[in-house]
Automatic annotation (TrEMBL):
Bias type Low complexity, positions: 29-44
SMART domains registered for this protein in UniProt: HTH_MARR
Location of the HTH marR-type domain: 52-189
Protein name listed in UniProt: HTH marR-type domain-containing protein
InterPro entries named among the record's database cross-references: ArsR-like_HTH, HTH_MarR-typ, MarR/SlyA-like, WH-like_DNA-bd_sf, WH_DNA-bd_sf
Domain of life: Bacteria
Amino acid sequence: MSPPQQVGPTGDVPARAVSGGDASGGDASGAVPDAVPGGLPDAVPDAVPDDIVEIEQALSRVAHMLARHRLHDRTVAAAGVPVDRAAVPLLRLLADTGGPMRPGEPAARLAVEAPHVSRLVRRLEKAGYVERVPDARDRRAQPVRLRAEGRDAVERLRAVGRRWMHEALASWSEEERRRLAELVDPAGRDRRAPGS
């Protein structure tokens, strides 16, 4: 089988796609996404605890670092997976869910517009990473699922990310890493905005 094709120019991410669909949740400037699952709170209190301020600043710095084009370029090069930044969250989501998903589902999960997901699916399908499957309940629907090549691509991307994360936290103790995972995991899973 021929190697996967390049999925769009690296970093060629529409503004709305970056603001809602980037792996870091923001663009390279660290901007807050336009679309946030659950919506934003109606009012932000004038004063917040100092620890909240510190957490927000720390996570913003991490998001900015993860959103840089250069880091993405290094990751895909090391993994041998020629995809642009906008495609990575969709590939990861399809890998995590396992089964086929209609285009509207990942759009809602990634907080991006459905047409953006449809364009990504077409590019990923052409590259051989995903495929459309029939829906017995709705012949017009075309759910999407990862092909074996897509699952392999996600695993290679994750392997590179995990290796670099291990190097970045080399000076941390196992207990410190475990504690970080315990604190970060619930925050990542609960994507609802306060007051939603």
